[in-house]
Amino acid sequence: MEPILEIESLKKYYGKSKNLTKALDGITFQVMPGEFLGIMGSSGSGKTTLLNCIATVVWPDAGSIAMNGKQIQKLAGAALADYRGKEIGYLFQNFELLDNLTGYENIMLPLSLHGVPEQEGRQRLEQLAAYLEIIDVLHKFPAQMSGGQKQRIAAARSLILRPGVILADEPTGALDSKNAKTLMEKLLGLNQEEQATILMVTHDCNAASYCRRILFIQDGVIFHELRRNIPDESGQEFYARILQVMAQLGGGSANVL
């Protein structure tokens, strides 16, 4: 099986000379189709910069990013727009919903931007809405929704174009523990039942325990990798191993994650 996403010697620097910050300093890893991969690290470690490079929000200074064998730095025009719209889906911490659109309209917007027929889009939406349990809020505006409902609407929007990879940036960061658990269970279900490929940045050990593999980033480099023992290891057992890594790397969550 070939990797769906390949990151090779990726570098992204900010500032100059004495004020130089090496957000990414030679990151290399692969993501396999159907994988649920977590990225963890302290604030400023480079994890969000990594996602933004993959999403082409920012461009790396060196190295390469390949999706299905295609170098994304070489894409331009319509090819780049297709990559951003169809190859990746981005799930943000703060939802990024349009306040003047209903949940239905927020979800359907990417389809209209990329020329997907409305009838096909409605069929996709019905399936996602049923799975994510958001049918009853599709007619509501974001101001009328709870945080958990907003994030599930945002998840449907990120999935509606059936992207190759879902990029999730702290998806539980604005949610309480109950809604965070619901969201992670839904993402895990999509991963296991639909073989959705998910790359998730998180500081939340509970959220990370849903992943199959975790890369820990510090000062722009990968300093540890942790794999879940599938299918025998439970989420609680994997969570305990995440905490062990934290202890080995210097203790408390404030210092490591």
Structure report:
The protein is built from nine helices and ten strands. With 257 residues, the protein is of the alpha/beta class. The strands form two sheets. The chain has a six-stranded mixed beta sheet with strand order 6-7-8-3-9-10, with helices on both faces. A four-stranded antiparallel beta sheet has the order 2-1-4-5, covered by helices on one side. Helix 6 links the parallel strand 7 and strand 8. The longest helix is centred in the C-terminal third of the chain and has 18 residues. The chain starts with a strand and ends with a helix.
Largest sheet: 6 strands, mixed
Alpha-carbon distance between the two ends: 32 Å
Amount of beta strand: 15-25%
Radius of gyration equals 18 Å
Order of strands in the sheet with most strands: 6-7-8-3-9-10
Mean residue pLDDT: 88
Number of strands: 10
Morphology call: globular
- Individual helix count: 9
Helix content: 25-40%
Unreliable runs, pLDDT <50, ≥5 residues? 251-257
User: SSE order in H/E notation?
Assistant: EEEHEEHEHHHEHEHEEHH
Structural class: alpha/beta
